[in-house]
Amino acid sequence: xxxxxxxxxxxxxxxxxxxxxxxxxxxxxxxxxxxxxxxxxxxxxxxxxxxxxxxxxxxxxxxxxxxxxxxxxxxxxxxxxxxxxxxxxxxxxxxxxxxxxxxxxxxxxxxxxxxxxxxxxxxxxxxxxxxxxxxxxxxxxxxxxxxxxxxxxxxxxxxxxxxxxxxxxxxxxxxxxxxxxxxxxxxxxxxxxxxxxxxxxxxxxxxxxxxxxxxxxxxxxxxxxxxxxxxxxxxxxxxxxxxxxxxxxxxxxxxxxxxxxxxxxxxxxxxxxxxxxxxxxxxxxxxxxxxxxxxxxxxxxxxxxxxxxxxxxxxxxxxxxxxxxxxxxxxxxxxxxxxxxxxxxxxxxxxxxxxxxxxxxxxxxxxxxxxxxxxxxxxxxxxxxxxxxxxxxxxxxxxxxxxxxxxxxxxxxxxxxxxxxxxxxxxxxxxxxxxxxxxxxxxxxxxxxxxxxxxxxxxxxxxxx
Length: 465
Known about the structure:
There is one protein chain. The chain is an alpha/beta fold. It folds into 3 domains: 3-145 and 273-341, FAD/NAD(P)-binding domain; 159-270, FAD/NAD(P)-binding domain, CATH 3.50.50.60; 345-457, Enolase-like, domain 1 (2-Layer Sandwich). The chain contains 14 helices and 22 strands. α3 packs antiparallel against α4. It is globular, with a radius of gyration of 24 Å.
């Protein structure tokens, strides 16, 4: 094997976890290659996930704002129409700029992009498009793929995954979304703003499972007010394409009662699963858990020495930023530095309008663990900046340990919730208390004042309610 094909680290997968791991390892002086089979870098996130969906979410918000809200600010417009091809072109241009940016970063940091499918053929050896490459260390960062419903075939035209939902050639009159999680609600919001009638079918009795229950209920009320319909505790038992429509059979979880529903496009958004096929894991002895995830130790090493795994293929939330932090941690460990990820502060955000953002424990989790806590809440209706923006729905909710005042969790429903959450994330990283937040300057008038007020409310002393 030539010296040219010998690396300190070979990362399999060019998504957020993989490319960040590769770049950080190269920054630390290691010889690095990243294997990616697709024609562009960036993985699901940059190509068919986080980035294109946010481009459409933002564009559709602007359309709805022009159509319904600007008049309240004294901005008078004529008839507003949707140019869907232009909206999709905006999305594509954003994706193109981002993936080209990763290529530039690889060149800048001297990371080799090995194009083709990667298969681990033994400890320290990866086969890429028929060529053998040696590596002192291998990092699996192949991400995840969408989960299908049994008996329902996704054709990415009328029955679509999140990928197909990004490229619908026209606005469907009726869209049914199966799954009330992040992806389903975000894509449902895009097409509802564009003019579709959207119905969300969720097997559980609530949306956004795993988020704080009070926030989830309020969030559902807000979406319902916007026109989104919900069928909770309901499962889809069949979906048949007939003519230009899709006919569904639904079954209520408790009663077993069935009903029929018809739509123009059906979006399956019931979750994601680790992508490990074709990697040769079984042959080299890499152990998987009962959910098909790669088992790793506290240093992200698999059951085979020298083979590591990060991101969606291992346990934990399937989020790009979680994968990135794991990629940095592994790269630093391989370079002889300490690497660490604090899973207590992984933020989760639903990029609807209003946004929902969450970090740390929910009330339900604290009660189940028997932890005494205090709650501080502050509504955006009492925030001057939110009122000025005509975006006063929702609240900030902070949970703190009753004895120590340490912040245990925070949950925000409201304008720019994802941005507002991060000051709380930083506070939690440093073991901060609700009092620390309450005593910190928050400029007036800002949305961030709602965070300060919620922190004050933990001790029963909010100033503006």
